[in-house]
Amino acid sequence: MTTKRTLAASTAVVMGALALAACGGSGDTGEGGGDGSVEMTFWHNSTTDDGKAFQQEMADAFEAENPGVKITLQVVQNEDMDGKLQTALNSGDAPDIFMARGGGKLADIAEAGQVMDLTDLIDDATSDALGTTIEAFTVDGKVYGMPTAVLPGGIFYSKDLFAQAGIASPPTTMAELEDAVAKLQAAGVAPIALGAKDAWPAAHWYYFFALRACSQETVEAAATDRSFDDPCWTQAGEEYAEFAGLEPFNEGFLSTTAQQGAGSSAGLVANHQAAMELMGAWNPGVIGGLTPDGEPLADLGWFPFPQVEDGQGDPTAMMGGIDGLSCHVDAPAECPEFLNFLLEKDNQEGFAEAFVSIPASKEALGAVTDPALREILAAYEDAAYVSVWLDTLFGQNVGNALNTAVVEMLAGQGDAESIVATVNAAAAKE
Hints:
D-Maltodextrin-Binding Protein, domain 2, Extracellular solute-binding protein, 2 domains, globular, signal, Bact_solute-bd_prot1, SBP
């Protein structure tokens, strides 16, 4: 990865590649020594059996190497994480270790003094293995989190359903995607699964239309100035509304969840009830957990978001997330030690296998064997730049306003202009 390729986060844009536990909350700074004097709480969003088992295995292994340390894990549904974490941080009863998404969301927490500065606490070996992905967790030159997974987005699809509909190859342009939608509809297949009940999956479509409509410089400016007056932001909404007018999404998409059960958008793809889904690189693992046999979907493929005519954005640009972990500002000294432990090569390889995902450590990329993920890696290496998800880049308040406005447009309660107006209004309040 090179520095030009990550559109990451600080107070500016960096360019380059659970219920609370009653004991052991933030501020328990015991010295250990085998007597259970150091207790840490760890919030994560791993709801699959393999994911939960891996997180517990890592906690157990760290405890075995560090007598006196006890880590209590708590699972939080992904869609609930940001809200619950913010409430816990504001109440002063936050977990010691928590999921971090970087971007403006992390910058807000850092500005509030609620997260530990890890700049001088990252092992040299860890830093070397992470490379420029660490920039996504850097705010004003200081590091406030350690990345665990690189999660570029794109469109996952069923090769079998494409073949049945007579689609010879994945679409590369919006016109080709529209043609694929028509062929799937004619074949009696829902073209695209969308879990709009959770808002962010519906907004992801707007993000990608904006990535194609807006130049890199415009996205940079919006991240720093919080101004969305460039015509490309409206253009993105108009193009999205036009595409949605083709009725490409599954029936009842406004009330469909993204990842919870066979009826979710991921479940529809897993059970061949829909042909495509726009999602991040965690999707193969989620889909695999929802197939009838609980195994990876054998015919799952992936292609980048198509090119859009008259756009100012680079057609190879990608968008996605870099998931990681942070320590509460008052967490014990063992917290950053645990993060370094998680990022050891063997543990990152285990992460990749358990979650069917792309690890942040360059040393562990050999563990990525899923064909769809290999396709994502190839596109990622060729991308002109990579932006984090817009709701992450712009921070929680502006991001939530954007997501909500997009869903309102799909529900017929707004339009492209109202999306821009809503986001500008939210930005003006910051």
